[in-house]
Design brief:
Catalyzes the reduction of dTDP-6-deoxy-L-lyxo-4-hexulose to yield dTDP-L-rhamnose. Keywords: NADP, Oxidoreductase. It is an enzyme of class 1 (oxidoreductase). With about 280 residues, the chain is an alpha/beta fold. The chain has nine helices and twelve strands. The strands form four sheets. Strands 2-1-3-4-5-10 form a six-stranded parallel beta sheet, sandwiched between helices. A two-stranded parallel sheet has the order 6-9. Helix 1 (about 10-20) packs across helix 6 and helix 5 packs across helix 7 (about 220-230). It is globular.
Protein backbone atom coordinates (compact mmCIF):
# COMPACT_ATOMS: atom_id res chain seq x y z
CA UNK A 1 0.00 0.00 0.00
CA UNK A 2 1.35 3.41 -0.98
CA UNK A 3 0.28 6.67 0.66
CA UNK A 4 -0.02 9.64 -1.70
CA UNK A 5 -0.14 13.25 -0.53
CA UNK A 6 -2.36 15.33 -2.82
CA UNK A 7 -1.97 19.09 -2.48
CA UNK A 8 -4.70 21.26 -3.95
CA UNK A 9 -7.09 18.45 -3.10
CA UNK A 10 -10.21 20.61 -3.46
CA UNK A 11 -9.47 21.62 -7.06
CA UNK A 12 -10.63 19.83 -10.20
CA UNK A 13 -7.73 17.40 -10.41
CA UNK A 14 -7.53 16.81 -6.67
CA UNK A 15 -11.21 15.86 -6.64
CA UNK A 16 -10.74 13.66 -9.71
CA UNK A 17 -7.85 11.79 -8.09
CA UNK A 18 -10.04 11.00 -5.10
CA UNK A 19 -12.93 9.99 -7.37
CA UNK A 20 -10.93 7.43 -9.38
CA UNK A 21 -8.79 6.17 -6.48
CA UNK A 22 -11.09 3.19 -5.89
CA UNK A 23 -9.86 1.81 -9.23
CA UNK A 24 -6.33 1.69 -7.79
CA UNK A 25 -6.61 -0.28 -4.52
CA UNK A 26 -2.87 -0.18 -3.87
CA UNK A 27 -3.00 3.49 -2.95
CA UNK A 28 -4.32 5.60 -0.10
CA UNK A 29 -4.69 9.31 -0.70
CA UNK A 30 -3.90 11.97 1.87
CA UNK A 31 -5.81 15.03 0.60
CA UNK A 32 -4.46 18.40 1.68
CA UNK A 33 -6.26 21.65 0.91
CA UNK A 34 -4.95 25.12 1.73
CA UNK A 35 -6.42 24.85 5.25
CA UNK A 36 -4.42 21.68 5.85
CA UNK A 37 -1.07 22.76 4.41
CA UNK A 38 0.29 26.16 3.39
CA UNK A 39 2.55 25.15 0.52
CA UNK A 40 4.12 28.62 0.38
CA UNK A 41 5.49 28.24 3.94
CA UNK A 42 8.71 26.23 4.21
CA UNK A 43 8.26 25.61 7.94
CA UNK A 44 4.68 24.43 7.47
CA UNK A 45 5.82 22.02 4.76
CA UNK A 46 8.66 20.72 6.94
CA UNK A 47 6.30 20.11 9.87
CA UNK A 48 3.69 18.43 7.69
CA UNK A 49 6.19 16.19 5.91
CA UNK A 50 7.78 15.08 9.20
CA UNK A 51 4.42 14.30 10.84
CA UNK A 52 2.80 12.41 7.94
CA UNK A 53 3.79 9.15 6.27
CA UNK A 54 3.56 9.10 2.47
CA UNK A 55 5.47 7.69 -0.49
CA UNK A 56 4.68 10.29 -3.15
CA UNK A 57 3.41 13.84 -3.56
CA UNK A 58 1.12 14.99 -6.35
CA UNK A 59 1.05 18.78 -6.47
CA UNK A 60 -2.30 19.87 -7.90
CA UNK A 61 -2.21 23.26 -6.20
CA UNK A 62 -1.69 26.28 -8.44
CA UNK A 63 -2.63 29.86 -9.18
CA UNK A 64 -4.87 29.38 -12.23
CA UNK A 65 -6.55 32.77 -12.69
CA UNK A 66 -4.96 33.40 -16.07
CA UNK A 67 -6.28 36.93 -16.59
CA UNK A 68 -5.90 38.07 -12.97
CA UNK A 69 -2.28 36.93 -13.02
CA UNK A 70 -1.49 39.82 -15.35
CA UNK A 71 -2.01 42.17 -12.38
CA UNK A 72 -1.27 39.70 -9.56
CA UNK A 73 2.21 38.61 -10.59
CA UNK A 74 3.49 38.08 -7.05
CA UNK A 75 0.59 35.80 -6.16
CA UNK A 76 1.04 33.79 -9.36
CA UNK A 77 4.77 33.28 -8.81
CA UNK A 78 4.26 32.44 -5.13
CA UNK A 79 1.99 29.49 -5.89
CA UNK A 80 3.37 28.44 -9.29
CA UNK A 81 7.10 28.85 -8.66
CA UNK A 82 8.08 29.27 -5.02
CA UNK A 83 5.64 26.73 -3.56
CA UNK A 84 6.53 23.93 -6.03
CA UNK A 85 10.21 24.59 -5.33
CA UNK A 86 9.64 24.12 -1.59
CA UNK A 87 7.60 20.97 -2.17
CA UNK A 88 10.20 19.52 -4.56
CA UNK A 89 12.95 20.11 -2.02
CA UNK A 90 10.91 18.53 0.77
CA UNK A 91 9.97 15.52 -1.35
CA UNK A 92 13.61 14.96 -2.29
CA UNK A 93 14.68 15.17 1.36
CA UNK A 94 11.94 12.72 2.35
CA UNK A 95 12.90 10.36 -0.47
CA UNK A 96 9.44 10.29 -2.02
CA UNK A 97 8.27 10.66 -5.59
CA UNK A 98 7.09 14.09 -6.74
CA UNK A 99 4.61 14.82 -9.54
CA UNK A 100 3.95 18.44 -10.45
CA UNK A 101 1.28 19.73 -12.83
CA UNK A 102 2.02 22.34 -15.47
CA UNK A 103 0.37 23.82 -18.54
CA UNK A 104 0.32 24.38 -22.30
CA UNK A 105 0.69 28.11 -21.57
CA UNK A 106 4.47 27.64 -21.40
CA UNK A 107 4.37 27.75 -25.23
CA UNK A 108 3.81 30.82 -27.40
CA UNK A 109 1.14 29.13 -29.53
CA UNK A 110 2.82 29.89 -32.85
CA UNK A 111 3.45 26.27 -33.81
CA UNK A 112 1.36 24.32 -36.29
CA UNK A 113 2.44 20.88 -35.06
CA UNK A 114 1.80 19.28 -31.66
CA UNK A 115 4.35 20.38 -29.08
CA UNK A 116 6.81 17.78 -27.83
CA UNK A 117 8.30 17.98 -24.36
CA UNK A 118 11.57 19.39 -25.71
CA UNK A 119 9.95 22.05 -27.90
CA UNK A 120 11.07 25.62 -27.30
CA UNK A 121 9.10 27.37 -24.57
CA UNK A 122 8.12 31.03 -24.74
CA UNK A 123 5.23 31.95 -22.45
CA UNK A 124 3.24 35.02 -23.44
CA UNK A 125 1.51 35.57 -20.09
CA UNK A 126 2.41 36.01 -16.43
CA UNK A 127 0.58 32.76 -15.70
CA UNK A 128 2.60 30.86 -18.30
CA UNK A 129 5.86 32.44 -17.13
CA UNK A 130 5.16 31.49 -13.52
CA UNK A 131 4.38 27.89 -14.48
CA UNK A 132 7.53 27.60 -16.61
CA UNK A 133 9.63 28.97 -13.74
CA UNK A 134 7.99 26.37 -11.51
CA UNK A 135 8.92 23.57 -13.91
CA UNK A 136 12.56 24.66 -13.94
CA UNK A 137 12.63 24.98 -10.15
CA UNK A 138 11.13 21.53 -9.61
CA UNK A 139 13.42 19.69 -12.02
CA UNK A 140 16.48 21.76 -11.11
CA UNK A 141 16.01 20.85 -7.46
CA UNK A 142 14.67 17.33 -7.90
CA UNK A 143 15.73 15.77 -11.25
CA UNK A 144 13.75 12.61 -10.50
CA UNK A 145 10.50 14.57 -10.29
CA UNK A 146 7.85 14.37 -12.99
CA UNK A 147 6.31 17.47 -14.53
CA UNK A 148 3.00 16.83 -16.28
CA UNK A 149 1.88 19.49 -18.73
CA UNK A 150 -1.80 19.46 -19.60
CA UNK A 151 -4.37 21.67 -21.34
CA UNK A 152 -8.00 22.84 -21.22
CA UNK A 153 -8.83 20.93 -18.03
CA UNK A 154 -12.51 20.37 -17.25
CA UNK A 155 -14.70 18.15 -15.08
CA UNK A 156 -18.01 18.10 -13.23
CA UNK A 157 -16.43 20.29 -10.53
CA UNK A 158 -14.87 23.69 -10.10
CA UNK A 159 -14.69 26.47 -12.66
CA UNK A 160 -14.15 25.33 -16.22
CA UNK A 161 -15.29 25.84 -19.81
CA UNK A 162 -17.62 22.83 -19.95
CA UNK A 163 -19.60 23.82 -16.87
CA UNK A 164 -19.70 27.50 -17.82
CA UNK A 165 -20.95 26.73 -21.33
CA UNK A 166 -23.76 24.58 -19.96
CA UNK A 167 -24.84 27.42 -17.68
CA UNK A 168 -24.68 30.07 -20.39
CA UNK A 169 -26.51 27.91 -22.93
CA UNK A 170 -29.44 27.71 -20.53
CA UNK A 171 -29.42 31.47 -19.90
CA UNK A 172 -28.81 32.91 -23.37
CA UNK A 173 -30.28 32.57 -26.85
CA UNK A 174 -26.87 32.99 -28.50
CA UNK A 175 -23.21 32.92 -27.54
CA UNK A 176 -19.98 34.05 -29.18
CA UNK A 177 -17.20 31.45 -28.94
CA UNK A 178 -13.61 31.80 -30.16
CA UNK A 179 -12.77 29.59 -33.13
CA UNK A 180 -9.13 30.53 -33.80
CA UNK A 181 -7.55 28.97 -30.70
CA UNK A 182 -6.72 25.29 -31.12
CA UNK A 183 -5.85 22.73 -28.46
CA UNK A 184 -7.31 19.67 -26.77
CA UNK A 185 -9.79 19.45 -23.88
CA UNK A 186 -8.62 17.27 -21.00
CA UNK A 187 -11.10 15.46 -18.77
CA UNK A 188 -9.72 15.61 -15.22
CA UNK A 189 -10.53 11.96 -14.34
CA UNK A 190 -8.55 10.81 -17.42
CA UNK A 191 -5.57 12.83 -16.21
CA UNK A 192 -6.06 11.33 -12.74
CA UNK A 193 -5.91 7.81 -14.20
CA UNK A 194 -2.68 8.74 -15.97
CA UNK A 195 -1.21 9.95 -12.68
CA UNK A 196 -2.11 6.72 -10.91
CA UNK A 197 -0.56 4.79 -13.81
CA UNK A 198 2.67 6.72 -13.33
CA UNK A 199 2.54 6.14 -9.58
CA UNK A 200 2.10 2.41 -10.27
CA UNK A 201 5.26 2.24 -12.37
CA UNK A 202 8.17 0.63 -10.51
CA UNK A 203 10.75 3.18 -11.66
CA UNK A 204 9.34 6.08 -13.66
CA UNK A 205 11.91 8.29 -15.33
CA UNK A 206 11.87 11.88 -14.15
CA UNK A 207 11.33 14.78 -16.52
CA UNK A 208 8.56 16.47 -18.48
CA UNK A 209 5.59 14.61 -19.95
CA UNK A 210 2.55 15.84 -21.88
CA UNK A 211 -1.00 14.68 -21.29
CA UNK A 212 -4.33 15.69 -22.75
CA UNK A 213 -7.13 13.73 -24.31
CA UNK A 214 -6.67 12.61 -27.92
CA UNK A 215 -7.76 14.75 -30.84
CA UNK A 216 -7.80 18.43 -31.67
CA UNK A 217 -10.46 21.10 -31.19
CA UNK A 218 -11.09 24.83 -31.08
CA UNK A 219 -13.06 26.38 -28.24
CA UNK A 220 -15.91 26.68 -30.74
CA UNK A 221 -15.70 22.94 -31.50
CA UNK A 222 -15.74 22.24 -27.78
CA UNK A 223 -18.85 24.39 -27.31
CA UNK A 224 -20.62 22.80 -30.29
CA UNK A 225 -19.98 19.34 -28.84
CA UNK A 226 -21.45 20.45 -25.49
CA UNK A 227 -24.49 21.90 -27.27
CA UNK A 228 -25.05 18.67 -29.23
CA UNK A 229 -24.66 16.41 -26.22
CA UNK A 230 -26.95 18.47 -23.99
CA UNK A 231 -29.52 19.33 -26.66
CA UNK A 232 -29.27 23.04 -25.87
CA UNK A 233 -31.15 25.44 -28.14
CA UNK A 234 -28.63 28.26 -27.79
CA UNK A 235 -27.14 29.48 -31.07
CA UNK A 236 -23.33 29.52 -31.20
CA UNK A 237 -21.48 32.18 -33.18
CA UNK A 238 -17.79 31.63 -34.05
CA UNK A 239 -15.64 34.73 -33.42
CA UNK A 240 -11.95 35.58 -33.57
CA UNK A 241 -9.74 36.24 -30.57
CA UNK A 242 -9.68 39.91 -31.53
CA UNK A 243 -13.46 40.00 -31.20
CA UNK A 244 -13.23 38.46 -27.72
CA UNK A 245 -10.34 40.28 -26.00
CA UNK A 246 -8.92 39.04 -22.69
CA UNK A 247 -6.30 40.46 -20.34
CA UNK A 248 -3.98 37.51 -20.99
CA UNK A 249 -3.17 36.26 -24.48
CA UNK A 250 -4.28 32.67 -25.10
CA UNK A 251 -2.03 30.41 -27.22
CA UNK A 252 -3.41 30.24 -30.76
CA UNK A 253 -2.21 26.63 -30.98
CA UNK A 254 -1.35 24.45 -27.98
CA UNK A 255 -1.89 20.84 -29.02
CA UNK A 256 0.39 18.57 -26.99
CA UNK A 257 2.25 15.59 -28.44
CA UNK A 258 1.63 12.64 -26.08
CA UNK A 259 3.93 10.07 -27.68
CA UNK A 260 6.40 10.11 -24.78
CA UNK A 261 3.92 9.42 -21.98
CA UNK A 262 2.10 6.74 -23.99
CA UNK A 263 5.35 4.91 -24.74
CA UNK A 264 6.72 5.22 -21.20
CA UNK A 265 3.61 4.08 -19.35
CA UNK A 266 1.56 2.16 -21.92
CA UNK A 267 -1.31 4.62 -21.69
CA UNK A 268 -4.39 4.40 -23.87
CA UNK A 269 -5.85 7.90 -23.92
CA UNK A 270 -9.54 8.48 -24.71
CA UNK A 271 -10.69 10.78 -27.53
CA UNK A 272 -11.82 14.14 -26.19
CA UNK A 273 -15.42 13.88 -27.43
CA UNK A 274 -15.82 10.45 -25.83
CA UNK A 275 -14.63 11.79 -22.48
CA UNK A 276 -16.88 14.84 -22.79
CA UNK A 277 -19.85 12.50 -23.22
CA UNK A 278 -18.82 10.67 -20.05
CA UNK A 279 -18.53 13.97 -18.18
CA UNK A 280 -21.99 15.04 -19.29
CA UNK A 281 -23.49 11.64 -18.54
CA UNK A 282 -24.44 10.98 -22.16
Amino acid sequence: MKNILVTGSKGQLGIALQAVSSRFPGFTLIPAGRDDLDISDADAISDYFSSHDFDAVVNCAAYTEVDKAETEEDAAFLLNFQAPLLLAEAALAKGCMFIHLSTDYVFDGRSSRPYTEDAETSPQTIYGASKLRGEAAVLGTNPGAIVLRTSWLYSQNGTNFALRMQELMKEKESLNVVFDQTGTPTYAPDLAVAIFTILSHPAPEGGIYHFSNEGVATWYDFAVAIKELTGAACKLQPVTSEQYPTAAMRPAYSVLNKGKIKAAFGLEIPYWKDSLAVCLGK
